[in-house]
Model the fold of this input.
Amino acid sequence: IRMDNKRKQEDIEEVEDDTDELAFVDEMSIKEMQEMLSEREVRYDDAVEKSELKSRVLEVLRNDRRQGLTIKRRREEKRKDCPYLDTIDRKVLDFDFEKLCSVTLKNINVYACLVCGKYFQGRGKSSPCYAHSLENDHHVFMNLSDTRVYCLPDGYEVIDPSLADIKHNLDPHYSPDDIKKLELNTRQSLALDSTAYMPGYVGLNNLKHTDFINVAIQALIHVTPLRNFFLNEANYKTSNVLVNRFGELIRHVHDSRRFKAHVDPHELLQAITTASNKRFQIGSLSDPMEFTQWFLNDVHRNLGGTKSANSSIISQVFQGQVEITTESPSNPTTTVRVPFFNLALDVPPTPLFQDEEEKNIIPQVPIFDLLAKFDGVTEIYNASTRERKKFRILKLPAYLIIHIKRFTKNNWFKEKNPTIVTSPLKNFDLGAYMKPGTAPTNESTRYDMIANIVHEGEPGKGSYRAHIFHKASEQWFEMQDLSVQPIMPQLIALSESYIQIYKRQPFVPEQP
Done:
């Protein structure tokens, strides 16, 4: 798209009135409309439907006509014989970072130089991209919005099948068959530097005290229905940046054709910082459970979720329901039903013992002792309100998140309970904690663990690690930022678990 007051070439169409404008826009592709808005520095990333793009382009055209400008549409030259394709260096290409021009720091109409990997804005004669081409003798650039590749300063679009792997690395896509195969894959892939990695089980770069986010994201992206939902972009047509960045990260993590064997979650972290009003941000260590609760609720809301069950993929996967009966000396007994995305279990204040060598012996407690809270008989007393509460599970979710409450805070400091909570990795049966008569006859109450988040070190400090189960190989992996290593399942049972995610087993009817 170009604007000028003089007609210069025969291959340029001129728009003169409203009728022409409507016909002109109707003939434009989505990419052409996006490119026009980009060159005019008009935001369009919140325009989900083509009709929204058309209305913005029409507004631009009408404003220009009121100013006496004539709108021209130029048919761009396309070539298959670009002589500079051998200058492309795939090893320097990294599309995980925020798509900002390295000169103007703007995020509109940004191109990646495929020779040096830097980002530049525009490709007109006055643009940083054009100047970089002339000053550095770099000629091949890819638009980071639509993956179209251009040769500068000549300005023609490059059409060549050898560019397909680069376009895929910027924006990987998955067919329904691709998504089905992920669950069965046991083959490792190779990055450009010959580093082997298992798609879906790659490290996330720690961008300074962001391990609490990394472990939570690693756990969530291995929840199969959540993963499959976000691998298909058609499922979440939204202008919400957080939702889109989460989907992009999931598609990159599970990509078997990556140029590198890890992912930098930079763009997702920027979106998290903005959406949480800097509650969770780079350089500030926070709690992964607090982050998980906030993240699930925010994504749920931005996907159109409500308090109703099954109103978003988040509630479909994680939402259960508990019944809480409250007895108070000053008020009548009340019973309410409350939805939940996670079950919180209190760790008893078990004292530490020392062995003969005066080394602390860490106590152990079965998770079933903690679940007694939900047996409908055990009372939880609140001294400040003098209330007694009883809990009972009414509905179990497809994927159960358990929060083992190790940390307690007061006005002066934060304490950690190091008690080992022993949990089964398979056949974790919660049927005894459901209110009689509420358990469905066609759903299992047994669960298998798929993720385990561990904290090591002092409260408020230390580090977090995630244990993730790979179903196809029956192998557990320990993930700590960029490190991904196999781990024996026996060690998971002895870890200081903080967050656990369980998957409900398929229902198997009893044999008569």
The CA atoms of residues 217 and 292 lie 8 Å apart. The longest helix spans residues 50-66. The two ends are 72 Å apart (CA to CA).
